[in-house]
Amino acid sequence: MHTKLNAGARAVRGALLAGAWMAGGVLALPALAQETPQAQEPQAQPAPADMPKVEITGSAIRRVQSETALPVQIVSRAEIEKAGVTTAAEILGRVSANVNGLTDGASINVGGDQRGFNSANLRGIGTSSTLVLLNGRRMANFASPGDDSGVDLNNIPAAALERVEVLLDGASALYGTDAIGGVINFITRKDFQGLELNAYGGKTDEGGAGKRTASISAGKGDLERDGYNVFAVADFQRTDALSTAQRKFIPNLEVEKRLGHLLSGYTSPANIRLTSNQRDRLQELGFTINGQPITNRLINLSAPNCAPPANVYLPAGTGGVDACTYNYMGDTELYPKTEKASLLSRGVVKLGGGHQAYAEVALSRAKSWYTGSSARVTGYIDYRLVPQLVGTGLEDLDDDYPGELELRMRLNEAGQRSSELTSEGMRFVVGATGAVGGWDYDVAYNHSVNTVKDRDTHGYVLYDELMTGIQEGLINPFGPSSQAGRDLIDSIQVDDVVRRARGTLDSVDFKLSRTFGAMAGGNLALAVGGEVRREKNRFDPSALLLSDNINNDAAPEGGRSTRDSRDVAGLYGEVLLPFAKQWEAQLSARYDRYEQVGGAASPKIGLSYRPSDALLLRASAGRGFRAPTMNELFRPTVYSATATLPDPVYCATVENNYSDCADNWDTRRYSNPDLKPERSRQFSLGAAFAAGRHVNLSLDYWNIKRTDLISEIGDDIILGNLAKYGDLVYRDEDGLIDYIELRKENRGAQVARGLDLAVTVRGVDTAIGRFGGRLNGTYVLASRIQNAPGDAFVSNLNKFVTDGVVQRWRHTVSFDWDRGPLSASLQNTWSSGYDDQNTAINIDDGSVVAANKVKSYSLWDLSGAWQATPTLKLRAGVQNLFDESPPYSNQAYYFLSGYDPSYTDPRGRRFYASVNYSFK
What we know:
By secondary structure, the protein is mainly beta. The strands form nine sheets. The protein has a 22-stranded antiparallel beta barrel. Strands 1-4-5-2-3 form a five-stranded mixed sheet. A hairpin with a 3-residue loop joins strand 31 (678-691) and strand 32.
């Protein structure tokens, strides 16, 4: 523990030194990090009355843009361009407070949950507790049912963004119950005129994962002069697939040597899984493989010649000493092929009398093509079809199916399993703004839809006809099939949209605000608002999927479509009280009511004190609640399996021999219609300081606690504490685990607290140009979960537990330079190392995987730009300048093995160039 604190302290110390270095003007930094409102110099005098006012995320009251009682980080359009990122998910990947969000890399699997979903996760407390807005209003959540509920970042029109505001403080009092972790507000251009063309091309050093993008923006009309403005931004992106064969770091991970227990016992030629009686009979007969008597129940008649390179003889792997092991990490994808397109159009027109009408249309489509290893098949044949076993008398044994052999085969002749995931977003907003009787108003109707289609395209076959082909000898499990067998496989390939999901949000919202009499520090201001919305979800599995006849794609339990909906209403108010020259209070409260769940109030208070023009002190405290999502309430049961874990009950009967008593146990994951809301309380303390004209610093402490936490108990925690959770483990008549129940319940609590550090330097003029820069970092002091009231808290701070880790320190730092038409930017993103998931077990020899500490992860990016003419700008850059590979990890939660794909990037060094042409 002492070592961990020292490592974190060194990271923070390094960050502070970097800030001091910048403050000296030797170098300077603007990053793709976030610009904080406090980064702007405090104003000594009140703003002129005609200075334009804006609304900052975290407040419903428009004001002159300056520091507030709540910490807000801003990512500008210029910073996004300097980083060379083109999607909303890539932008948030460089926000230090965003932890364990869903990404394209982490979603790689075969038949897994919520593929294609890119999400945000502030503070690592959950996607469902992070609210994502577009221009201050909600979007429909990703429709496919699963553990996470949130906006698919693929539906954000990244090319149209003006900036991103990240409120790093729970904001349930203004925005609603799902803002416990914070709010991310993607803000698009509002009044664009002229024409702008952008093109971007990138390639990787080792091949694969190339990217091409193109966008066009066009707008007409000056709102003040012409009385209207209308514009549209269209964006098209394509990224190529990346396979394991295209990356040198994959064999360097030595997955076969280190993680053989995570590889597959389904091989080509097929492994045979003997019953205990069959193994004993063959041992009595002196049956051998490779000249050695068999010892295990899993055998392969071709061992040790296992048709390499994908199928290997690996005694320490899942195949063991008598069979073969399949290394899927040599035969799958690290990054999917994607095509993304979006269109944002907005129009506004003056109506006279200070009123305006506006309309906004956002359309998006993201297609992802997932390609995994070839299909696993559990087949059965009469042993007499295997020449080596003829005459062994297996039909005389006391088995359930005498003489039948279980095959664990890899169906290479069907090709790799491939699927196509399409997520489409559609959002229409119409509204009006203006002033009536001294009140500013904004009222709008919002219709937002997300649809998801999951299509099996290749490698998935009809199970019943496949079994017939194996049993009749047309399909050969141990070698090439006959032409008739290959024709049969081709004829039973599945090409079907197996899952369709649609989520719809319809809402009407309003907001009124005005100022009243003057107080000692300025005018008192009031805002009130409300929202009513209807949320609808539907999930439609195809008839073919419901038949449960697709090999490797099981039907959902219950065999039915689902339709769920609910009404939600909320009302809020906010008061801004500048009660003294140096003091300002921000009071707000919201009441939300959810159909079938109930309602609750969420109050919040913020306080700021400015003892001098250069220093701002601030604090906030509030309460909130998060209503359970419709997925948590009504999701169909999902069948899955654990990582390889020991069963203590079974282990006690075999002298704790893990090779016998550890396995991938079946699980059933249930929703729960009786869930109650989570409750939360959070507070923050911070300071912002302007050190002269060039340097701004801020440091904010944040603390969040949730109770009645909606969660499942981790399967590893259940089996590690059967005295308390044994009722969740269901056993058969022999006492072996049948399945483990993972049910959503209101359990225990969650605590997260830490520090946000921001250092900004800008406008340092020297003889060789202007320098600037920025550092944004998050240092987590605690992140832990209590599974039930009274239980000890389990920490995932710098330790991988069940499904992920929260790193102690993450930062983004950048250094910028410009001189005339030339500019350059050097950027770094860094995540601290942590204790790995060191509980995996090799079920062949019973050994526990060697303990590992995952190394820190640091990526450097470099870009340069030339403003060739007033209308033409060229940029070129290198991402992952030093070709840093993902650090090795033992983790067994994600489909990909050998590293953690949730925060690392397997693409390696990438080169890109872009061109921007604009005129008005």
